[in-house]
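Appendix B, Record 12. Input sequence as logged:
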Amino acid sequence: MTRFATLATALALASGIAGAASAQEIVRGGNPQSPIASVVTVPASFDTIYVSGMTPPVVDDKATGVAKYGDTKTQTIGVIKRLQDALKTQGADLGDVVMMRVLLVGDPAKGGKMDFAGMMEGYKMFFGTAEQPNKPSRITSQISGLVADGMLVEIEVQAAKKK
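Logged structural output:
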């Protein structure tokens, strides 16, 4: 009888712990002044959404090279809006993004160096704002090229949405 009571108590505690864990929220850590989260923890009670790398929309179809897509800031804004639209198809939004990978091509106007400041200007319009305070973990890398001449930005994200 004692063994049965102990087992019942253990099962009750385990189900209580599992219930508490499923009620948890995403935890974003790091310096609050930083534009990104240095660490993000997603509990098991969330679905993960993977969004493929998005490239910028054309802003001037008569132009060639970078002018066809705009500068790094313009391209970043266009890409993030595309990501936002993709997330909406899954019932999610930018506040659900937990990981971001940013690929930047060196800007010819900047001597072939990536325009990190321009990317950040566009990024900060969508993340860490009063309207949308959540910030993802992120990596930003310079690469040699993208699929079309003049594209400077490609971004892929992972988002987490409560089940």
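The chain has one domain: 2-162.
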